[in-house]
Every structure is written in C-alpha cells, then in structure tokens.
Amino acid sequence: MSIEKLRYRLYIDESGDHTFNDIVNPARRFLGITGCILESGYYRLTFQPGFEALKQRFFPHSPDQPVILHRTDLINRRGRFWPLRDKSVETAFNQTLLDFLKNTETTLLTVVLDKKSHMERFHEAAMHPYHYCIVTLVEKYAEFLREKNGIGDVLAENRGGHEDIQLKGAYRALLENGTIARTPSYFKQVLSSSEIKIKPKSANIAGTQLADLLAHPCKQATVLSGSEKDVWESSFGARIYATIEDRFFHGKEGKALL
Q1: In what order do the strands lie in the sheet with 107-114?
Q2: Which Pfam families match (predicted)?
C-alpha cells in the first residue's frame, strides 16, 4: 500500500532591483528572492486562518475588502495601516507578529545575487537577475522535496504582463532543460506543475504576504557586514530575522543563502 506524498507550495517574493541599472549603487547592487515552503494541510488549517486572525485583530476589515500586509506600507504606516501611528499599537503588533513567525511551521530559502559581480563575470551572457535567482531557488526547493519525499508547486505574485511571461518561460525552460547540475527529470519527479502559478496581490494570499515580510530581512542579513550590520541589527528587520533564521533549508550541498 503506497503512502500519499505530502504536498507543499513555495511562496516567493523579491527584495531589490531586478535590472542591471546602476549596479554600482550599493542600494541597487543586490537582488534577493526569498521562498517560504508550507505544507498544504498545515497552510489550510492553521497558517492561513491564523494569519487572517492576526490581521483582523489589528486592522479590522470586511472579508470582501481584505487587508493585505505589505512591508513598505507597514513601515510607512500608509493607508489601512494608520493604526500603527499609535506607538502602543505598533509595539503590540510587532510583538504579535514576531510570536506568530516564531510559531509558524515553514522552511525558508533565500538566494541573493550580487548583480555587479555577475555582470563582470558573464558580460553579455549574464542571465536575467530575477530568473537566475528563481532557477537557483527552485533547484534548492526540488532538493527539499526529494529529501521530504514530497511533491509541490511554486506561486509568485504578479509583476506585470511582460515580466510574468518571462518568468513563466524561465520556469518552463528549467523543467524542460534542467540545469548544469540537474537533469529535467530531477525537477519533474517532484514538481507537481509544469507552470509556475502567478497571482495578483489582490488575491490576498497569505503565503506571498509572508514572503513579502521576510524577503528584505533575509537579504539584508546575507549582504551586510561590519559597521553596516551593526546598525541594521538594531532594527525591527533584524528582530524578524533573528526569529526565523533557524528555518533555513541548507540541504546536502551547502547553504541556501547563496
């Protein structure tokens, strides 16, 4: 009697500029993609309801007009996040969010690309930064699925018509051609869909909102060092990273932070 495999989904979001413009500028030099792996049963029964309850507690709303957590809007207390202008509310929200993250059963992958070094090394042959990170991320995800004897798919937030078409093409090419290190069958055996799923922000997907909250802290923790890191470690982003840093999947072939 065969045992049904666990199903997972990788929810992804980016931090940084995905172009090669102004890559000597430290603020635009690095692109980070973070993926949150969540098992489907846990996601449906525990994570998603808990995530919605957290939002309802601090930002009461009608389900017909859901509040969608977005890191930039939260930081700037814009729009529906105006209650955070009250310091006591902000403190309570921050602690509740940290507690929620601490208890969330997720595995994280982060890939950070130094676009300047990438361009200097490959010149005209340099791969599109976003696609490079996605391919590397999905390769690690496939390794995770094989270790767990599971199957899964990938979901990203839409980024625009042309960019979404390019992303779908890069994902499809990965399954058709594999990589230098992996054959196509390596991916096809564990990825349950030949297409990457792309949904708009308005779809109110808890997994992509989680990835949005974590993408910047994960990138910063990877990139910064020395005096820069000392300054960053006093921020709320550093507290988020400290809460979730033990969730990273390192796999058999090295760290997921590349």
Answers
A1: 107-114, 30-39, 7-15, 151-157, 197-199
A2: DUF3800
Token code pair at residue 46: 């525990």
Closest residue by Cα to residue 133 from 122, 147, 118: 118
Tokens read off for 70: 């977005």
Name the band, by pLDDT with cuts 50, 70 and 90, for residue 252: low
Q: How far apart are CA 6 and CA 3, in angstroms?
A: 9
Instruction: Give residue limits of the domains in the chain.
Output: 7-151+200-247
Find all residues with CB under 8 Å of 20, minimum gap 6, and list them. Answer: 115, 119, 126, 129
Q: Which 3 state secondary structure label does DSSP give 235? A: coil
Q: Count of CB atoms within 10 A of residue 79's CB?
A: 11
Helical segments of the chain, H only = 26-29, 40-42, 48-58, 71-76, 87-103, 115-122, 129-148, 161-177, 184-188, 206-223, 226-232, 236-244
Answer whether 170's CB lies under 8 Å from 134's CB.
yes
Q: Are 97 and 53 in contact (CB under 8 A)?
A: no
> What is the per-residue pLDDT across 155-164, written as a single tens digit (0 to 9) for each?
999 988 888 8
